[in-house]
Amino acid sequence: MKRWLCALLLPAYCYAGAAVAPDYALAPQRIADGVWWFEGLQEHFTRSNGGNIANTGFIVGRDGVVVIDSGPSRQYGEQMRKQVEAHSGGKKIVEVLITHAHPDHFLGNQAFNGIRIEALPQTVAVIAEQGETLSANLYRLVGAWMQGTEVRKPEALTQTGERVIGGRKLRLIALQGHTEADLAVYDEASRTLFAGDLVFLHRAATTPNANIAKWLAALDALQKIDFQTLVPGHGPVVHGPEAIAETRAYLVWLRDSLHAAAANGLDMMEVANQPIPERFRSLAVVQEEHTRSVSHLYPAMELEALSPAK
Ligand SMILES: [Zn+2]
């Protein structure tokens, strides 16, 4: 097949056939002095996006660079590392922080050989237990982009709160709700908050490991932080509270609509087919995520509705 036609129709397959590494075309965007992010696509995992659907970033300190999340594959990690090194004025990467145990955020770890990678203890435990399954699943969804990707487990991050890494004062904030352990990273100098997947903007939240009550409490905690810029796990960078507000509104609606459906005895198909309110219809991939959320969250709510009142 001609290369251009190939690239148009099935890029990952073609690149693999030509033994050329797929190109994520990563280009970091500057947020503030020494603070950068890579924007993920507002899509599901596909064979054309290679799993590049989450935001990642890095912070350049006086003595070194801190990377936040390593992306979905070894190729992504390697291409990200090149870009980080090209934009950090010759400073070395001294630390990689993984926000949580979802495959689009940690499967690039291999690219950071010889560098300390840390995540919250529960994130490390989940990666140790489910990393291979998560990786195999991503291979199935995005194909050749994953070539050579293997799971590298982070070290357990035992010291949260204020930490100076690479000569930069950071606050490492341990929360939960999107998963069992969600790390947010706040850079004091620029007042930039990397919120991980606790915050989504213009995209429906994913809930395979969610606890909505804890997630809402985490959003309360994030809202109290005096940030100037917020980098959500998915969606554009913002300078105000709107991303937290949007995530909260979506989760509250999800919780309340599923509870009401359970109280009314609807079955799972009926719930999944309920119309999405107008105000959420413009969120990327909302229909698919809503269907997935019903399957993740509804069985427990049905059980709760059926159990006798205590
Ligand atoms: Zn996630």
TrEMBL record:
GO biological process: antibiotic catabolic process
Family of this protein: Belongs to the metallo-beta-lactamase superfamily. Class-B beta-lactamase family.
An MF annotation (GO) of this entry: hydrolase activity
Stretches assigned to the Metallo-beta-lactamase domain: 53-234
Native organism: Hydrocarboniphaga effusa AP103
Classification via NCBIfam families: SoxH_rel_PQQ_1
Protein name: Hydrolase, putative
Residues spanning the signal sequence: 1-21
Gene3D superfamilies the UniProt entry points to: Ribonuclease Z/Hydroxyacylglutathione hydrolase-like
Pfam family, one: Lactamase_B
Domain of life of the native organism: Bacteria
UniProt keyword terms in alphabetical order: Hydrolase, Signal
PANTHER family xrefs: ACYL-COENZYME A THIOESTERASE MBLAC2, METALLO-BETA-LACTAMASE DOMAIN-CONTAINING
